[in-house]
Design brief:
The structure is a single chain. This protein has 41 residues and is mainly α. It has one domain. 95% of the residues lie in helices and 0% in strands. It contains one helix and no strands. The longest helix has 39 residues. The chain is rod-shaped. The N and C termini lie far apart (59 Å).
């Protein structure tokens, strides 16, 4: 039971971290696309 508790906490932390990273990536994606487009043009 103790191991399962630790594992669930670790998975929750990983999920939250990935979620934050993913949302930041999606939010910054238009900026990268616009920047790349301006550099190419």
């Amino acid at each position: 039971m103790f191991l399962i508790d630790i594992l669930s906490r670790v998975l929750l932390c990983l999920w939250l971290f990935l979620n934050i990273s993913l949302s930041n990536f999606i939010l910054s994606l238009p900026h990268f696309i616009c920047g790349g487009y301006l550099i190419c043009v």
